[in-house]
Amino acid sequence: MRTVPHWIDGAETPGGGARRSTVFDPATGEQQAEVVLAEQADVDRAVASAVTAGLSWAQSSLSARTRVLFRFRELVDAAADELAELVSSEHGKVVSDARGEVQRGLEVVEFACGIPQLLKGDYSDQVSADVDSFSFRQPLGVVAGITPFNFPVMVPMWMHPVAIACGNVFVLKPSERDPSAALAVARLWQQAGLPDGVFSVVQGDKVAVDTLLDHPDVAAVSFVGSTPIARYVHQRAGAAGKRVQALGGAKNHAVVLPDADMAHTAAQLTAAAYGSAGQRCMAVSATVAVGDAADALVQALAAQADAVVLGPGRDAGSDMGPVITAAARDRVVAMVDSGEREGAQVVVDGRGRSVAGHEGGFFVGPTLLDGVTPDMEVYREEVFGPVHVVLRVDTLDEAIALVNANPYGNGTAVFTADGESARRFQRGVTVGMIGVNVPIPVPMAYYSFGGWKDSLFGDRHVHGPEGVSFYTRGKVVTARWPHVARPVTASMQFPTS
Ligand code: NAD
User: Where in this protein does the record put region Disordered (predicted)?
Assistant: First the structure.
């Protein structure tokens, strides 16, 4: 049985603990590896190695850091297919989708290659006689990333390229369900010339997470995962005095107005609902049909859902793979059962679907529910599976009110041919990322990614300018270099100019 180790101080290590967790092949349901689970001493070792490496990394020149980033960019690009296969084998998503996640991660590396430009400060000449003021930003030190299973390459890459470019050292605690991609990325950093200890991986569960959250040498924590754990991480790391950004779960609504192009909209929503088997924090899981958009839309969505090819992620013919575990599959099925019990119509039923030759795989077929109301569990909970629910309202204002009443605020989209409606929507919703005729509005790497309300705890979003801000702290210097002899006395009054 393959064992997935930690990566500490530039080398693989099994660590000192005996605990292990199973890594499945979701397409077959069989175990394919085991991953070591860190004990506190393993995390302490990784952080100690990071502290030492950080002393020189923080002092390295911007040019030296940029050269490592450019080399890392080339290596990730060259390894993209290999990384995608690895992601697909442990996560279950189709390889082309995994390739897309690697590409979106790579774009953050490309953004971080511009770090000399991004770290430029401000300068004000002659703020007073012979006095100049300027600002610059410095790294925090050791920063930790704790990441979910659903994007094992991209989500960590939202964090570590920016953190490292800013001069920090980074300890990643990836999901224990698909842990191998983090190690592959660690090897690429080393090949790129990153000094040992600047990027480490501790595999593990709550023990590793809690040790990082409490560790006095960890200055900041970036977390992405479910809302209950995001809230917990924010509170615990915040209580320990750390800077925290904790991104949580989602319920992303697509609002469809009657003037939308229904064929285009249905195709976009189907891809956004069932891509990666719905296991995306930006998946469209709830469509809000406005006025007489509903019947034609549901009909088109049903036809499209029926056409989705369910199969193993490694098969080029599959559109949609399995979900991550048997427990995830059972939870998704239970959610659909509850929706049906509470009065929703099951228009397309993915329960009980299996794939020939892969009967043990964790498959659920695309599922479409109509007549869903906000009080139903299948709407209130994040399902995180291939379940798309349709709610019906009469007006755009009702749709906006529905979106805003939801505790999550990650992403949303409006489909319409009318600019005024789109503008009213984008200004009125309490959501962080908004699409206009775009179903999964994931911002480009040079903007920042993050939701509102229960989808993000903390005040800064990831990557882009807010990522640079999160991983650095500012200084403002007020300096006097008089041309003439320096004054030998100073006024006791508060300085004014
Ligand atoms: P999760 O919350 O179960 O796990 C995330 C991380 O937290 C993992 O590294 C895990 O080991 C750790 N963890 C789990 N339970 C813990 C506990 N009790 N104490 C301490 N640490 C713990 O999330 P997941 O199932 O891996 O990922 C799916 C979730 O992530 C969904 O809710 C999805 O919406 C969310 N997500 C959000 C975004 C976003 O940008 N907002 C992006 C991707 C995923």
Answer: 1-20
Q: Report ipTM (2 d.p.).
A: 0.99
Give yes or no: residues 352 and 464 share one domain.
Answer: no
**For position 488, what pLDDT does the model report?**
76
Q: Which domain holds residue 373?
A: 252-436
Residue 170 confidence (pLDDT): 99
Ligand 1 atom closest to residue 204's alpha carbon, by position in its atom list: 11
Ligand 1 pocket mutation pick from 24, 210, 226, 461 by most atoms within 8 angstroms of CB: 226
Is ligand 1 within 6 A of the CB of residue 176?
yes
**Residue 113 is among the residues annotated as catalytic for this protein:** no
Note whether residue 487 is domain-resident: no
The values of phi and psi at residue 330, to 5°, are: -65, -35
* Rounded distance between C-alpha atoms, residue 174 and residue 33, angstroms: 15
Instruction: Give me the residues of the chain with pLDDT under 70, please.
Output: 484, 486-487, 497
Q: Which residue among 166, 185, 254, 281 is the active-site one?
A: 281
For ligand 1, whether the C-beta of 226 sits within 6 Å is yes
Which pLDDT value is given to residue 497?
Answer: 63
Atom of ligand 1 nearest to the CA of 205: 11
pLDDT at position 126 is 95
Tell whether ligand 1 has an atom less than 6 A from the beta carbon of residue 347: no
- 485 inside domain: no
3 state DSSP class of 473: strand
Residue nearest to atom 27 of ligand 1 (CA): 148
The answer as to whether 495 is a domain residue is no
Residues 276 and 224 placed together within one structural domain of the fold:
no
Residue that is written with structure tokens 């009125």 in the block: 428
Six-digit token string for 349: 């039923």
Q: Is 382 in the pocket of ligand 1 (CB under 6 A)?
A: yes
Q: Shortest CA distance to 145 belongs to which of 137, 136, 133, 153?
A: 153
pLDDT at 8: 98
Contacts of 424 (CB under 8 A, 6+ apart): 396, 400
| 281-304: pLDDT as tens digits | 999 999 999 999 899 999 999 999
User: What residue spans of 369-418 are helical by DSSP H?
Assistant: 377-380, 396-405
pLDDT at 494: 86
CATH number at residue 351: 3.40.309.10
Tracing tokens 């199969």 back to the chain, one arrives at: 311
Sort strands 11-13 and 367-370 into parallel, antiparallel or unpaired.
unpaired
Find the 148 Cα to ligand 1 centroid distance in Å: 4
Residues 99 and 152 in one domain: yes
